[in-house]
């Protein structure tokens, strides 16, 4: 008998909607459970690399995202005085690996949400707080998910559960209680501001204990972030003034972006990640995706793109084979073998980038690091990124 083609996706973020769309395209009936009272992604901007755009194309939403975003390239890395540590050459070969699409996070989420709404067989449930989960067994019992919402409680069975409920995943806590998110030691300001004189290419600034970056996300908007070491949970009386002080010694274009940010448009969140890797991304009939599986530091710029890849692979490596009568256990193993090594490598690269970037303190380490970077041709780093952004959908 063919595997039951019903799935529950826990979490209505980027990874969750990507998984739902991918499963629906494979013929599954999908229920998406979102804890928030309404669907909507709060956030500023992000940079989608070529692999992320390949995933969006596989989901059928690539053109919609291109229409709302901005295609550009990575220009390189500066020091706080505005001197180039690494400058990417403007060649076709380098552009192939450094091309990015700056996108407002909310618009990316809206495109995925719309694709899920338009797909056959997708049910969207808001205000759903998962209270219990039984993972079932690939060759036997179905998975069971219980949740509480405005209409009361509900319990359903499913042939597959996709855990896409973020870095503080309830599903992960239940199935892998030994793996917990930890505070990274850094926090991040983020904002989208009206256009300034900033030219729009992705530029990063590495300073002692901090990283600043910016990229254009539309014809009229620039997204910037300021990632810096800070005590967990500590707040500033005036966040905008604090950001101005923290980056006062940075290049003029960075100071202009901070100064152009109204306080009510400035967001800040403490950055958590999963320093301890999961031994498997599956348990019973449950598959872990996105930050629930591999929350990484933002220093590689691969969080959203890797989540999109996960979503595509849920549909193509699990959904489609099982819909064709294949074995779920085999499909889950295939997914784990395809995704876990890659995502854990990306997480390690993020940690390395943080150690040499935002986490590097002042003193002698800064000039030594800066000298090494200046001696490294930008083209070499551009080519090194080929294995990351060269991902193609299965």
Q: The CATH topology is what?
A: FAD/NAD(P)-binding domain
Principal-axes shape call = globular
Q: What is the helical fraction, as a range of percent? A: 25-40%
Number of strands: 18
Descriptive report:
The structure is a single chain. The chain has 394 residues and is α/β, with parallel strands linked by helices. It has a single domain, classed as FAD/NAD(P)-binding domain (3-Layer(bba) Sandwich), CATH 3.50.50.60. It has 14 helices and 18 strands. The protein has helices at residues 14-25, 50-59, 62-68, 92-98, 105-118, 170-175, 239-246, 252-259, 290-294, 303-323, 328-356, 365-374, 378-384, 386-389, and strands at 6-10, 29-33, 45-49, 70-78, 84-87, 99-104, 122-125, 129-134, 143-149, 152-158, 160-163, 182-194, 202-207, 210-216, 221-229, 267-273, 282-283, 286-288. The strands form three sheets. Strands 3, 4, 5, 6, 12, 13, 14, 15 and 16 form a nine-stranded mixed sheet that branches. Strand 9 and strand 10 form a beta hairpin. It is globular and about 60 Å long. The mean pLDDT is 93. It comes from Actinomadura rudentiformis. Residues 7-348 form the FAD-binding domain. One of its GO terms (molecular function) is FAD binding. InterPro entries: FAD-bd, FAD-dep_Monooxygenase_BioMet, FAD/NAD-bd_sf.
């Amino acid at each position: 008998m063919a595997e039951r083609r019903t799935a529950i996706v826990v979490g209505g973020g980027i990874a969750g909607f990507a998984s739902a769309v991918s499963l629906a395209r494979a013929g599954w009936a999908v229920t998406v459970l979102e804890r928030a009272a309404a669907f909507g992604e709060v956030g500023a901007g992000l940079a989608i690399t070529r692999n992320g755009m390949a995933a969006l194309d596989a989901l059928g939403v690539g053109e919609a995202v291109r229409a709302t975003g901005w295609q550009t390239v990575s220009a390189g890395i500066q020091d706080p005085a505005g001197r180039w540590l690494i400058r990417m050459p403007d060649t076709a070969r380098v552009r192939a690996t450094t091309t990015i699409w700056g996108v407002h996070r909310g618009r990316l989420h809206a495109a995925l949400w719309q694709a899920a709404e338009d797909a056959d067989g997708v049910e969207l449930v808001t205000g759903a707080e998962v209270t219990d989960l039984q993972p079932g067994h690939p060759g036997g019992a179905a998975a069971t998910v219980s949740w509480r919402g405005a209409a009361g409680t509900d319990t359903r069975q499913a042939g597959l559960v996709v855990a896409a409920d973020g870095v503080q995943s309830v599903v992960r806590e239940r199935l892998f209680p030994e793996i917990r998110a930890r505070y990274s030691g850094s926090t991040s300001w983020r904002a989208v501001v009206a256009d300034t004189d900033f030219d729009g290419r992705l530029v990063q600034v590495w300073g002692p204990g901090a990283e600043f970056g910016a990229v254009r996300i539309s014809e009229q908007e620039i997204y910037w972030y300021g990632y810096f070491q800070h005590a967990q949970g500590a707040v500033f009386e005036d966040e905008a003034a604090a950001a101005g002080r923290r980056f006062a010694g940075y290049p003029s274009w960075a100071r202009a972006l901070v100064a152009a940010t109204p306080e009510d448009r400035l967001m800040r969140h403490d950055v958590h990640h999963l320093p301890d890797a999961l031994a498997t991304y599956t348990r019973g009939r449950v598959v872990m995706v996105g930050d629930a599986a591999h929350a990484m530091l933002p220093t590689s710029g691969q969080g959203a793109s890797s989540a999109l890849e996960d979503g595509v692979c849920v549909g193509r490596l699990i959904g489609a084979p099982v819909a064709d009568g294949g074995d779920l256990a085999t499909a889950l193993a295939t997914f784990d073998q395809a995704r876990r090594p890659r995502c854990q490598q990306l997480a390690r690269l993020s940690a390395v980038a943080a150690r040499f970037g935002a986490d590097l303190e002042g003193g002698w380490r800064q000039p030594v690091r800066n000298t090494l970077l200046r001696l490294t041709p930008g083209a070499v780093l551009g080519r090194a990124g080929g294995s990351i952004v060269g991902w193609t959908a299965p």
